[in-house]
Amino acid sequence: SHAKEILHCLKEKYFRELQDLEVDGQKVEMPQSLSWYPEELAWHTNLSRKILRKSPQLEKFHQFLVSETECGNISRQEAVSMIPPLLLNVNPHHKILDMCAAPGSKTAQLIEMLHADMNVPFPKGFVIANDVDNKRCYLLVHQAKRLNSPCIMVVNHDASSIPNLQIDVDGRKEVLFYDRILCDVPCSGDGTMRKNIDVWKKWTTQNSLQLHGLQLRIATRGVEQLAEGGRMVYSTCSLNPIENEAVIASLLEKSQGALELADVSSELPGLKRMPGITKWKVMLKDGQWLEEWKDVPSNRQTQIRPTMFPIKDEEKLKAMNLERCLRILPHHQNTGGFFVAVLIKKSPMPWNKRQPKVHQKLPQRTEDTEVTAANSDNGSKCITEEPTLAENEESKKMQELQNSDTEQSKKEGVCGPPPSKKMKLFGFKEDPFVFLPEDDPLFLPIQKFYALDPSFPKMNLLTRTQEGKKRQLYMVSKELRNVLLNNSEKMKVINTGIKVWSRNSDGEQFGCAFRLAQEGIYTLYPFIHARIINVCIEDVKILLTQENPFLSKFSSETQKKVKDMAMGSIVLKYDPDPEKPDDLQCPIVLCGWQGKTSLRAFVPKNERLHYLRMMGVEVFKAKRKEEESESKTAEEVQHRLAQTEEGMDVEDKEHDLVTKMEAEIGEESSHSPVESSAMEVENKIEDLDQSSKNANNHVSQENDDTHTSNVKD
C-alpha cells in the first residue's frame, strides 16, 4: 500500500513538475516506467547524477529520491540487475539463498517479495544473504535494514564452499535445502562498459579465464543446496560466453539430467532479449583463438580448462536448450549488458543421490560429518581444479568441537560466532545472538504493559549481549530461529533480526522499562492490544511536524483517549477513510511517547518526511537557506540551546512548520533519528553536537567502504 502511495505521489507531483523543464538549455526527458517490470514499480530516468545533484530546478526531486531511498521506500539500481529476482518467482513461504549478495539491491527485491502480504508479520520463508567480503557484508546489512524484515540473515562465507545448514524438523535434524537460489556470481563486468570507464582500461581476455573456475564452483555449490523442484537463477553482468553459457553447459552436463534450463520466454513480456549462444571460441592472452580443448598448448592447460569450450556432441547440445538463456544487450533498451539463466532441479545431483536417505537414518552427532563427506566427495568428482581435502580436515576438527559445545550452548539459546581457532575469521568479531529464555523476568512486564496476544512468539526474541543489561530486543521469524540455533558453530552470522524494543530508563517508573522501536512496529503491531491510540490525519500531521506538541493541539477524540492512559510508550495508528479518496489511503503505525501534558512521535527524520509527502505536505527546503543555517556562528547556536524549553528537541524549537523541517537535510542531524524520551532530552542537549559529529564520521566511513569495494552491479 505504501508503494502505491509513493507511485501516486511521483506521478501526480514530482513528474508533473519535470514537464517542460529546461536545464542548461536542454529539455528534461520525462522518467519512463520499465514496461517489463510488474505494476509500474520500476522507472527509468536519463538525468545524469551530476545534473540531479547540481541543478537548482531538480533539487526538490533529488531530495525526494535521497530521502525515500534512505527510508527503504525506493531503491536505485541498474535496470537489468532487477531481472534475476523477478525470474525466481518467489512466494512468501520460500526459503531463499542469495549466494553473492552485496551490495544488496537484489536482496532487497527478494525481501520485498517475501512480504507480499503486509498483513502477515512473519512470512514462513526467509532470505539468507551471503557475501565473501566482510566489509561488503556491512553494506548489505545497511541495504537490508531499510526494509525492516524479521526474515533476513546476513552471513559471511565463501560462496563456493558455503556450508550445509541443518534445521530441526519435528525433533530430528535435516539438511536445509533452499526453494530458490540467486547465484549472481562475480564476473568481469564487461556488460557495464557504458557506465564503467574502468572496463575499457583494464579489460583483458584473462579476466574471464580466471573467473570461469570460480563461477562454476559457486554455481555447483548452489545447485547442490537447491531443493528438488526448486529454481536457481544464474546471472552475470558480462556478455562473455566463457562466464555464461560455458558455465551453464558444464553444469548441465555433469548434472546428468538432474537439472534443466527453464523456458522463461513468456515471462517479463516487454523485455527485449536475445537467446543464449551454442558456438564460441576461446582467446589466449596473446590474441590466439582456440576452437577445441585439443588445440590448447600443453603449457596453457592449467589456465584453459575443457569446461570453457562449447560441447561438440550435437545431440547433447540440442538437449541442453542453451538458447533458453537470456542475453540482454545494451543498445536494445538503453540498459547495461546482462546474462541470465534459470535452472530447475528435477532430481538430486548424481554425486548426492544417497544424501537424503542417509540423513534420516543417522544419529544426530554424526550427521555433520556425513554432510561434509558428501561435499568433499562431490568436490573431487565435479570440480577438478580444487580438491576439498582441507575442508574435510576442517570438518573433522569442527565435529570434535561440536560434540562438546553444541548441546550446552543450544540449551542456553546462545548462538555465538564460529570458534576462531577452527575457522579462519576475517573482519570484525560479532556479538553472539542470545535468545530470551522462556522464563526470563524481563518479558513479563513488557507483556503486561502492551497486553501482548497469547500467540506472540516470545521464543523468537533475542539480544546481542550475554552479560549485563539488555539494551535492545530484536526479533526473528520462527524459521530463522531454527537456522540460528542449529548452525551457530558452522556459519558466521553478521546480522539478523529487527529491533522491536529499546530500553528506556524513564519507562521503569511507568511499569515497563522498554519502549517500542519504529523499525519493528509493523511486525509487532498485530500482537499489541493495549496502549493504541487511533488518530486522524490532522493529528498525524501535528505529530510529525512538531517535536513535542501539547495535548491541547490534538483533536478532542485523541485527547479523550489519552486522558485515561498512563504515561509511557504508545502506538499511534492512522486508518484511511475510503470515503475521503483525497486523503492518504494507506494505514500508518507510529511509535510515540505520552508525557504529562504532551504527546510525541518517535520516528526517524526521513520516515517523517516520507509520511508527510504522502499526505501532500510540502517538505522541500532549498539548499541556499540550508547553507545560511550552516554558517551560523557558534554563539548563535549556544543561544538557541539556552532558549530550548523542557522536553523539546534541540533541532525543532523554531520548526513548528514542516516547511522548515528539511533545512538540515544532508547535515549531521539527518543521520541521527529523533528518538530520545521526552524526559531525557534536556540531559542530551550538551551531547548532541558530539554525537552528530560521530554519526557523520560513521556515515562517511561507510561511504568510503562503498567506493573502495568494487561494486559488482
From TrEMBL:
<keyword id="KW-0949">S-adenosyl-L-methionine</keyword>
<comment type="similarity">
    <text>Belongs to the class I-like SAM-binding methyltransferase superfamily. RsmB/NOP family.</text>
</comment>
<feature type="binding site">
    <location>
        <position position="184"/>
    </location>
    <ligand>
        <name>S-adenosyl-L-methionine</name>
    </ligand>
</feature>
<dbReference type="InterPro" id="IPR057286">
    <property type="entry name" value="PUA_NSUN2"/>
</dbReference>
<dbReference type="GO" id="GO:0000049">
    <property type="term" value="F:tRNA binding"/>
</dbReference>
<dbReference type="GO" id="GO:0016428">
    <property type="term" value="F:tRNA (cytidine-5-)-methyltransferase activity"/>
</dbReference>
<dbReference type="Pfam" id="PF25376">
    <property type="entry name" value="Pre-PUA_NSUN2"/>
</dbReference>
<keyword id="KW-0539">Nucleus</keyword>
<dbReference type="GO" id="GO:0005634">
    <property type="term" value="C:nucleus"/>
</dbReference>
<feature type="compositionally biased region" description="Basic and acidic residues">
    <location>
        <begin position="704"/>
        <end position="713"/>
    </location>
</feature>
<feature type="binding site">
    <location>
        <position position="158"/>
    </location>
    <ligand>
        <name>S-adenosyl-L-methionine</name>
    </ligand>
</feature>
<dbReference type="Pfam" id="PF01189">
    <property type="entry name" value="Methyltr_RsmB-F"/>
</dbReference>
<feature type="binding site">
    <location>
        <begin position="100"/>
        <end position="106"/>
    </location>
    <ligand>
        <name>S-adenosyl-L-methionine</name>
    </ligand>
</feature>
<keyword id="KW-0808">Transferase</keyword>
<feature type="binding site">
    <location>
        <position position="131"/>
    </location>
    <ligand>
        <name>S-adenosyl-L-methionine</name>
    </ligand>
</feature>
<dbReference type="InterPro" id="IPR001678">
    <property type="entry name" value="MeTrfase_RsmB-F_NOP2_dom"/>
</dbReference>
<dbReference type="GO" id="GO:0005576">
    <property type="term" value="C:extracellular region"/>
</dbReference>
<keyword id="KW-0489">Methyltransferase</keyword>
<keyword id="KW-0694">RNA-binding</keyword>
<dbReference type="InterPro" id="IPR057285">
    <property type="entry name" value="Pre-PUA_NSUN2"/>
</dbReference>
<feature type="domain" description="SAM-dependent MTase RsmB/NOP-type">
    <location>
        <begin position="1"/>
        <end position="346"/>
    </location>
</feature>
<dbReference type="InterPro" id="IPR049560">
    <property type="entry name" value="MeTrfase_RsmB-F_NOP2_cat"/>
</dbReference>
<dbReference type="InterPro" id="IPR029063">
    <property type="entry name" value="SAM-dependent_MTases_sf"/>
</dbReference>
<feature type="active site" description="Nucleophile">
    <location>
        <position position="237"/>
    </location>
</feature>
<dbReference type="InterPro" id="IPR023270">
    <property type="entry name" value="RCMT_NCL1"/>
</dbReference>
<keyword id="KW-0820">tRNA-binding</keyword>
<feature type="region of interest" description="Disordered">
    <location>
        <begin position="351"/>
        <end position="418"/>
    </location>
</feature>
<dbReference type="InterPro" id="IPR023267">
    <property type="entry name" value="RCMT"/>
</dbReference>
<feature type="region of interest" description="Disordered">
    <location>
        <begin position="625"/>
        <end position="713"/>
    </location>
</feature>
<keyword id="KW-0819">tRNA processing</keyword>
<protein>
    <recommendedName>
        <fullName>tRNA (cytosine(34)-C(5))-methyltransferase</fullName>
        <ecNumber>2.1.1.203</ecNumber>
    </recommendedName>
</protein>
<dbReference type="GO" id="GO:0005737">
    <property type="term" value="C:cytoplasm"/>
</dbReference>
<feature type="compositionally biased region" description="Basic and acidic residues">
    <location>
        <begin position="625"/>
        <end position="643"/>
    </location>
</feature>
<dbReference type="Pfam" id="PF25378">
    <property type="entry name" value="PUA_NSUN2"/>
</dbReference>
<dbReference type="GO" id="GO:0030488">
    <property type="term" value="P:tRNA methylation"/>
</dbReference>
<feature type="compositionally biased region" description="Basic and acidic residues">
    <location>
        <begin position="650"/>
        <end position="663"/>
    </location>
</feature>
<feature type="compositionally biased region" description="Polar residues">
    <location>
        <begin position="372"/>
        <end position="381"/>
    </location>
</feature>
<feature type="compositionally biased region" description="Polar residues">
    <location>
        <begin position="691"/>
        <end position="700"/>
    </location>
</feature>
